[in-house]
Amino acid sequence: MSTSSTSAQSQHAVRMVLLGAPASGKGTQGATLASSLGIPKISTGDMLRAARDAGTELGQLADGIMAAGKLVPDDLVIRLVDGRLSEPDTQSGFILDGFPRTVPQAEALDRLLEGRSVKLNAALHIDLPRELLMERATLRRTDVRTGQIYHLKYNPPPDSAELVHRDDDREETVRKRLDAYDTMTAALVPYYKGKKILRHVDGVGTPREVGERIRRAIDELVSAGASSGASASRGAAARGGADGD
Ligand code: AP5
Predict the structure, then answer these.
(1) Is residue 157 in some structural domain?
(2) How far from 8 is each of 91, 159, 229, CA to CA, in Å?
(3) Residue 101 is among the residues annotated as catalytic for this protein
(4) What is the full DSSP assignment across 44-88?
(5) Nearest alpha carbon, ligand 1 atom 13
(6) Which of the following is catalytic: 26, 49, 136, 141?
(7) Does residue 3 fall inside a structural domain?
(8) Which residue's alpha carbon is at the smallest distance from atom 7 of ligand 1?
(9) For the domain that residue 123 is a member of, what is the CATH number?
(10) Residue 43 is part of which domain span?
């Protein structure tokens, strides 16, 4: 493949973060988007739960922290994400779900991507009122065999599903997770606004309606990023091939 077509492909690759409070719909939307775009969804929550279930040292450390509704230390999740971003399937793009969750994580992510000569081009923030977040979390169930996420009221599981109720989805723990979101993670909204890649998406509505809003926002952001990249390259070429963006 020529260098110019590789770079055009890279400009249109979706490299995004999904932001939003616990149970705002990041996992549901991320899974649909990942399968329609053919890129991986990377969920630090799923990775930490897998480590816990496998009984690794990291999983044992994370277990108590997650059950208490607190955040796992930055350096541990940054290492997890660094490893995952080194896998070849992320070269065509990726969706980060639940990472970053603090400003130091966001800064570390920028550095990890800079080391790979790519940038994020979209940060989508799913907005939902607190009372709906509570209902969505406490009635969530997951099929252990398929990983499919269900909701007892809005998306009931089939009889064949083998359901688990996440430990951290009990009402008291959800409250703590929502508080952790307000104190630590909400700061990412201004962080990505400053980088001009943030869009707010109304999370009220059916998964399909929310998904359509997200797709429109991504299309706008990715094409805006690609055209500013293209004009930066044209500018660099006009300046005699000096470095672009
Ligand atoms: P994580 O697994 O990332 O949890 P979260 O961010 O709290 O998000 P959730 O998985 O709870 O919700 P979601 O937004 O994905 O919603 P979903 O689509 O399932 O993290 C868990 C823990 O791990 C953290 O508390 C922390 O301890 C640790 N951790 C993870 N990442 C970390 C990091 N980077 N740094 C530090 N610690 C970290 O939807 C929820 C429910 O609503 C489902 O039942 C679904 O079916 C339903 N639903 C979804 N959309 C709709 C809709 N439009 N209408 C009706 N129902 C809907």
Answers:
(1) no
(2) 13, 46, 9
(3) yes
(4) HHHHHHHHHHHT-HHHHHHHHHHHTTPPPPHHHHHHHHHHHHTSG
(5) 23
(6) 26
(7) no
(8) 22
(9) 3.40.50.300
(10) 15-128+185-223
